[in-house]
Amino acid sequence: MLKPREVKTVEDARRIVEERGISHVKVGLFDNDGVMRGKYMSREKFFSSLDDGFAFCDVVLGWDVKDQLYDNASYTGWHTGYPDAPVRILPASCRDIPFEDGMLLFLAEFDKQAEAVCPRGTLRRVIERCQEMGFEPYAALEYEFFMFNETPESARAKGFRDLIPYTPDWFGYSMIRNSVHAELYHQILDMSEAMDFPIEGLHTETGPGVLEAAIAVDRAEAAADKAALFKTFMKVLAQRQGMMATFMAKWSGKYPGQSGHIHVSLRDKKTDKSAFYDANEKHCMSKIQRHFLAGQQRLMPEMLCMVAPTLNSYRRMIPGFWAPTDATWGVENRTAALRVIPGSDKSQRQEYRLGAADGNPYLALSVALASGLYGIMHEWEPGEPVEGNAYDIKHPPELALPRTLWDAAQRLRASDAARELFGDAFVEHFAASREWEEREYRRHVSDWELDRYFEII
C-alpha cells in the first residue's frame, strides 16, 4: 500500500484514498495569522477537487483570530459579499493523522486572485525568485511554547489568570523533567515522525512548563509547512491530553518571551554547494552571505510586522529577555537580531533570531528569505557586527525597530522593497489586517488601567 509521504501526484492521492477505503479526508489551509482552517471532505468531492480545485469562502482572508471581520481591507469584505475563492489541493502534502485511524490530511492553498494575499502563495513566490537567482533555499524553524495543566474551558473560567504550568520553576535543559514526563515527550516525538515534521531536538527551556522544539532542516517550502503543522498539532495533542500549549510571544510579564527562530541557508543550484560558505573568508562568510545578511539587517525594520504580527509580539522585544530590540547582527551572538553561525559547506547559515512563536511561519520565512535576496540583488554590505551584549550598545537610529504593531504596519506600507518582493496587493492587505488588530486592542480596557485609574483618578 502507498504511504502518505510517498504521494506526489493527483493519481497517487486518488490511489491512497481508494486503498484505505475511507469515505472522507481532511483538507486544510492557513490564514493571515497562520491559523489552520479546514474541513472534512467527502471522497467524491476530494477526487473532483484534485482536478479542478474547490471553492472556499474568502472570509478566512478577511477576518482575525477571533473571526471578527476586518472593516478596512479592500481585497474582501462586506463590499465584495465574501465570495468563494478558488483553492487547489497539494497532493504531495498528504499526511497521516495518527489519532484519527486511517484518516488523511492534505494541505491546500488559495489560487488565482486570492493567491496574491495567500501566505503560502507569498512564500512560494519568494522561493521562485530565489531559484531564478540560482539558489535553492533551506530553512529550519524552532519554537518555544508553554504547556499548562488547563483546558480551553478552565483557562477561560479563570480569565487566563492563575494558570497552572505543566511543570514548576525555571529549569532549562532538565533531564529530570524530560524523564519524569517522558510519556508526553514521546507522544510529541512520535507525532512529529508520523506527520513528517521531525524534531531534531526537544528540551525544557527557561520558565515553568516551557519546552523548545527544533524542527529538522528542509527545503524552504517544506520547512514552512512543517512548522505550521507542528504549531497546529502540538496544540491538538496537548488538548487531547487535557492540557494546553500556547505560542503567544509573551504570555506573562514574569517570564521570557517565546521565540520562533528561523535558520536559513542557500545552496548554489549549479554546484549544489553552500552559497554561504567560503573557507578563505573571515567566519567562512562568502560574499553572497554578506549581501544576504545586509538585506536582512537593512529591511528588518520595514518588514517587522510580518515577523512580529500581534500586539503581544512587542511585549517580547525588551532588553535582557533574549529578544532583539534593534536590527543588529553578530557571530555566534544570541543578543543580536541576526546570528551568523560559521560552520562547513553543510552547516554554514544564519539565524533570524527576531522571530517569535506567534508568527505565521509562511510570512516570517518569506521575510527572512526575501530581505536577504534583496541584499544580494543590490550587493549591500552589512554594518559592523555586535560584540558582547547588544543591549548595552547604542546603535544607529536606522537600525531601531518599530515599537508597536501600528508603527510596524506603517513601515510595511511605505516599504518599496516589500511591494517589489511581495506585491502591492499583499502589502496593502496585510498592513490593513495589522492596523485592524491594533484598533481592536485600543477598544479594550485592561486590568492595568482599572487598577491604576478606577478609584484614584
TrEMBL record:
Keyword flag Glycosyltransferase? no
Q: Does the keyword Isomerase apply?
A: no
GO molecular-function annotation terms? ATP binding; glutamine synthetase activity
- What positions does the domain GS catalytic occupy? 119-457
Pfam families documented for this protein: Gln-synt_C
Q: Which family does it belong to?
A: Belongs to the glutamine synthetase family.
**Name the UniProt record assigns to this protein:** Glutamine synthetase
